[in-house]
Amino acid sequence: GENVEQHPSTLSVQEGDSAVIKCTYSDSASNYFPWYKQELGKRPQLIIDIRSNVGEKKDQRIAVTLNKTAKHFSLHITETQPEDSAVYFCAASGSGNTGKLIFGQGTTLQVKP
Amino acid sequence: EAGVAQSPRYKIIEKRQSVAFWCNPISGHATLYWYQQILGQGPKLLIQFQNNGVVDDSQLPKDRFSAERLKGVDSTLKIQPAKLEDSAVYLCASSLEKTDQPQHFGDGTRLSIL
Predict the structure, then answer these.
(1) Given CB atoms, is A96 within the 8 Å cutoff of chain B?
(2) Between residues 31 and 70 of chain A, which touch chain B (CB distance below 8 Å)?
(3) Mutation target among A31, A101, A108 for the B interface, most CBs of B within 10 A
(4) B42–A32 CB contact, under 8 Å
(5) How many residue contacts between A and B have a Cβ separation below 8 Å?
(6) Does B41 sit within 8 Å of A106, measured CB to CB?
(7) What is the pLDDT of residues A57-77, one digit of tens each?
(8) Is it the case that residue B12 has pLDDT exceeding 80?
(9) Whether the bond into B8 is cis, omega within 30 of 0
């Protein structure tokens, strides 16, 4: 079935360091890959997304890369700040062209001051 | 732009009772989603509407869960009767169209079953 694997489950970095979160998806028909940030008790917030016709996308300190052949995509956060601490979820569009998203299990990022 | 509105924020009920959640999507968004997020996991799609029609309800436990989106705007999700494993946050999201469009989430309803 449709599946998205996300690693690592927890990540701790020092302020100013970079953080990388990786996801693998199973459905080769997936063509939309958003990333969400969720702070404790709050709604998931879209931080960046990428479509299958693009290999890389950057927005200030965050970037996402996509390797369709390997069915991998990754989130890169540079110059991390304490306010980047949250749970990050990757997602991939499901089959059937319905817009359905399949989410990863989440990565808890802790940025130490 | 007003975001996705959900109510209530919290609900505590006993097992076998019924409960209903309400969602008002972003104005003009044709597609509405209900997700279940169990603690420590990513959201899982329960049902997706395009206007007032169901697009995908393959993961909705239809023996106890039901949802509707009358007039293609607001939506309600109901659980009857509730089970202990239904304890979760129920998130509503909306998007302009159904494919490859950003989904915007509401704050969710945290449901606790005693």
Answers:
(1) yes
(2) 31-32, 34, 36, 42-46, 49, 51
(3) A101
(4) no
(5) 65
(6) yes
(7) 999 999 999 999 999 999 999
(8) yes
(9) yes
Q: Determine which of A31-35, A43-47, B14-18, B98-102 has the lowest per-residue pLDDT on average.
A: B98-102
User: In which element (H, E) is residue B7 found?
Assistant: strand B5-7
The pLDDT, as a whole number, for residue A1 is: 66
The strand ranges marked E within A1-113 are 4-7, 10-14, 19-25, 32-38, 45-51, 56-59, 62-67, 72-77, 86-93, 101-103, 107-112
Percentage of chain B lying above the pLDDT 90 cut = 88
Nearest Cα to Cα of residue B66 among B31, B42, B34: B34
Structure tokens at B107: 């704050």
Beta-carbon count within 10 A of B1 CB: 6
Q: Which residues contact B58 (CB under 8 A, 6 or more apart)?
A: none
Mean pLDDT of chain A: 94
Residues A31-57 have pLDDT tens digits of: 999 999 999 989 999 999 999 888 999
**A51 contact residues in B (CB cutoff 8 A):** 100
Residue in the block written with tokens 């399949």: A102
Which one of A43, A45, A101 has the shortest CB-CB distance to B108? A43
